[in-house]
Amino acid sequence: MLQQTQVKTVIPYWERWMRALPTVAALARAPWENVLKLWEGLGYYTRARNLQRAAELIRRQHRGEFPRELDAVLALPGIGRYTAGAICSIAFGQPAPILDGNVTRVLARLGAIRDDVRSARVQRRLWALAEDLVRTAPGRCSELNQALMELGATICTPRHPQCGECPIRSDCRARRVGRAESFPRRVARPATTARRAIAFVVERDGRVLLRQRPTGVVNAHLWEFPTIEDAAAHVTPETAAATLFRSDRGQVTPWKTWRHSITRYRITLEVHGMATDVPPRVPGGRWVSPAKLAELAMPAAHRKIALKWRAWKARAT
Question: What average pLDDT does the structure give for the chain?
Fold first, then answer.
């Protein structure tokens, strides 16, 4: 959960998850729909799938016990070198290095490394430095790794580092040259890209039409309102509806517009109601009641649409 999300956001999700799935065995045998629902709102849903795949592998290959060897931890789905090092050092006290964003910044300043820390060459150098450090602290590598992360999060910050309070300031080459904030070199973020999506709320006999996203796409297996993604500026809602439902027999009414961001994309989601005397069909579609709607896992933007529709239905009755 913490791989892409802040701690303050994760805590309520983690508490809810642990109440529902307190053991590896419980996660391994849980229906995928239940796992998705528990993860709903955290994004990057491949993490949830990898978590369940890892639980299944632990049950099959490790008799239900989480492995302690670094190579075995690395072999679990969704666990990379940093996560494996954090688990093995913090949970099991093993001399395994870690390298997250905070530790990268601390080490780059210690060694006055000015180059792009994302390059393969610099990454190798930083991992070597991290490995050398844990070897100097036998039996205390857990404390060392946590201290490095905390140092980067609270003192050796990206901007305005508090060098006077740093416990390792005497060893810091970047501080010696008086330019700690210049290390590591900041790489320009990729330019943002605007995208437009058009979604439809189609109701029939008190139910609303949803579709399930297919395997192999972003947000796979989540439920959403029928949507045209990445719609060109000239595409009208009527044209989008005709494309989605293969029929132009429907009256489209503007409903609401939401704007949100996913990585470098700035998405404008236009939501429209649609009334038609011919029940439309879409691949993977299902007519869903308000009660069932609350049980299905949906992307955050579509959950907003669902909440608005359910509130409208409640007022109407």
Answer: 92
